Amino acid sequence: MAIDYIPRSFTIVRDKERCIDCGCCVRQCSNECHYFADDGKTVLADSQNCVACHRCVDLCPTHALRIEKYICDYRENANWTAQYQQEICRQADSGGTLLSAMGNPKPYPIYWDKILLNASQVTNPSIDPLREPMEIRTILGRKPERMTVEEKGKSTIKMPPQVVLETPIMFSAMSFGSISLNAQKSLAMAAKNLGTLFNTGEGGLHPDLEAYTDHAIVQVASGRFGVHKEYLNRSRYVEIKIGQGAKPGIGGHLPGEKVNVEVSNARMIPVGSDAISPAPHHDIYSIEDLRQLIWSIKQATDNTKPVCVKIAAVHNVAAIVSGCARAGADIIAIDGFRGGTGAAPTRIRDNVGIPIELALAAADQRLREEGIRSHVSLVAAGSFRCSADIVKAIALGADACYCASAPLIAMGCHMCRTCNTGKCNWGIATQRPELTKRLNPDIMHQRVENLITAWNHEIKEIMGGMGINSIDSLRGNRLMLRGIGLSEKELQILGIKHAGE
Amino acid sequence: MKYIIIGASAAGLACAEQIRKEDAAGSITVMTGEHYLPYSRPTISYYLKGALKPSDMYLRKPSYYAANGIEILTDTPAREINRENKTVKAGRKSYAYDKLCICTGSKPFIPPMKHVEGKANAYTFLDFAGAKILKQKATPNTKAVIIGAGLIGMKAAEGLSKICQSVDVVELAPRILPSILDEASAKKVQKYIEEKGHIHFHLGDTVKEAKSKDKRITSLILNSGKELPCDMLVLAVGVRPETQLAEQAGIETDRGILTDPATMRTSDSDIYAAGDCTVSVDMLDGSKKILALYPNAVYQGTAAGSQMAGGNILVSGTYAVNAIDFYGLRICTCGLINAQGPQYTDKTAQHGDRYKRLIFENNRLVGFVLINAGENAGIYTSLIENRTDLAEIQTDIFDTPSLFMFEKAQRQKRLKGESV
Amino acid sequence: MKKVYAKEELCLNCHLCEVFCKTAHSLSKDVIKANKYEQPAPAARVKVYGDNKLSVAVNCRHCEEPKCVKACITGAMTKDKKTGIVSVNEEKCIGCMTCLAVCPFGCIQTGKFAVKCDLCRGEDEPACVKNCPNRALVYTDLGGAEV
To answer: How far apart are CA A16 and CA C23, in angstroms?
Structure first.
């Protein structure tokens, strides 16, 4: 037996008094942690492969299961932590790049938690959203520089294409391939019912989602998978993906085993072939090149679709955003370094990029300074955990937000961060038919809708407390924000005052 | 319309109920020579062994008949059918009919045996009355001998073995339950019953004569020379269709009453027959045979009743299907289990106390014998009934049958409960 | 009539329908007692066939013309005229399993008596449907429509 240098992560604790040996856990665990003893009846568990996805815990009819952290202490060392030692062992085993899923888990500052919101007292009245209208309708797209009217007062401006959302929350790009069709369909259904948009990612558009094209953002990424004229036109807007928060500067790789017939049709690639998205777009080496692609897409869509450019939040994000705006983008999405992914090289995920809060504030500030803020809508992405995060993002200057992890959690994701294994027990990040069927879109779209509806209520409540009755009045309204425990520099970049000021 | 049904067991009751479904107004009279409202004949052995209360043997509640306008005349044996006047004579009265159904069932067949006839302690075991007598007479010390190891004989033996310490079964054939078991499975079942029921079998043997005292049999001498002490003799050699009434009325018979196999109409267009008294055509090999089985009686009674009332239900196809248990051993059989001929093949799987034998005709299932392996047997039955080509079957035919035997479209149909 | 329909494309093979069917047909109505301690052990009337790849929960179709009712040799199996529910009178049933031998769907389980779905006898929603985590079982009046 080869030595296993890495202790397991979790222990499955079974309460034998409660366990009825029904075998539900055995049949549900794709990591094969649970199994029947030789008698074919008694259920046992081997915790070695447990990823703490809680599928067994949540489905156990008698609540007999619990997952606990397996603690196997190393000699204390603040530098050589257990994690680094284990990662070294893993690489010593494999000789390969470490892969991880979901967003950056490292304890970098989360500025949302260091920003506080304002509320009205005495000098201006707060608003009760249950009694008075509260507008969170959000409109994305390039706004004209100035208004021109004919004599009778009728506008002579030809408005660029606009996107009307009933909530500032959209679903970020997750391709069919990285997530299951059922998961994507759930998001599409929820988007339709909520009056918002879902994003196809780079996976093409599956024919089953035909009914949701008015609520689809279709992506054009470096692999150009699934891109053709009809694809571009079957959308609400088109997004050119330059980068992703979880892995700036890195392309994508959907392993061939996930490319089944359905995925291959949607992506227009052979079954079983690896879908490799190059790190750069090989036709975009400059802002001018980007301009050409934007222009081509607008031509292909007869100027009816706004074009969005999505970039990862990196060091000179403000200048890049400015360049994108000047290249003709109608919407710019900035993805912070805590943004999720199905698979990213661990070192990239954990060390590259900057927080969305700083990137957003810097970009908004830069566009204002250059007088082109109204040329583009800004969409912030990269880990919104609750409605307060959304409110803060909008006050920092975002027009809307992309959310992915939160709706996934609503659909059953437990952040076990093993999307890359393709064994997702909740039927989300997998293409195995026996797992994808576990996600019933009829149930899950409702849960996602419930989540966003709840957030909408909370956003309205927070706005009401501030005495604001329209989300337009909140946008870029940094007076509503105060920093807590932040340095002068951080406050300066965020463009907010410290609490108490 | 005046409907008369002679016989109030499975076929007669099914016939009456079907008539009522299709003709709300007609008068329905069911006459039976028995003293009881319709009860389940097969349950008499459960009554004998004490597993069933008499009140649970009745097929319907007593109030059911009045509520549904079905007149049941008990203790009214039909004596004569007058086809010219269209009447049935019973007792002193004569009953007029427009449509008549004969459901007279079976009568016990008693082979000639020396010194047996007319003895006070020789019984048959066919109806409730007979079962009541046996239950009354049997005591723990009774030495019971049953002649015949068919379904009735074995059920009588099982029932009596719960009361009497000594039970012997004499059977001319070399094995028990010849009508439902093949040789190999009969051996298995016999062994099980010997162990569980302490029943002694005398196979390939028969009673030569009886010794008696004061009109009571005291012992039996078998062909083999064995002498069995006996103070209760149960004659269960077999049954024959009860055709006397039909024959007297000039209705065509051949062992049983001959009918159209789909409509159950006899040679007289106003007279139908259903149940054990008729000759059935086995859909599986086209042979004419007596299939004295409960489900068949119900299917035939239903079809006869429908036809009599102007409806269109037909007997869709007749084949043998039987399920029975002895001391917890469950036997389920269907179709041609003793088929002879080059076109038949069979395969057996045995595992512990489970036994599964499937009989095939070319690429079709035509029969099965399942012992303690009856899970979802009805799916096998449907394969037999529908003459399904086994090439369409998706799983191993020897696996426990399930809907996954069928390809998706078929399976979905069945999941929706559509008739197949 | 309303019946339970199974969608195999959503069946998780978790067998929770069986667990909760047993519970609903137990004396204690407690999931642990019913599935672990109660004697005689209550029997599930719904049964899941197949494996993780393809599975489906099968229970009684409550046919219009039930073969089991016709074949029942004791009159224990009846179809209720009002509700359409096909059920077994356990007092009358002798456990001969003739019903099982004729049911073309495989919906009857062996036990001391014939064991089969009774649609939880008038509950708003049978236990199997209520507890199916993926709505692979639906309780509806199909009226010939698609599930």
So the answer is: 19
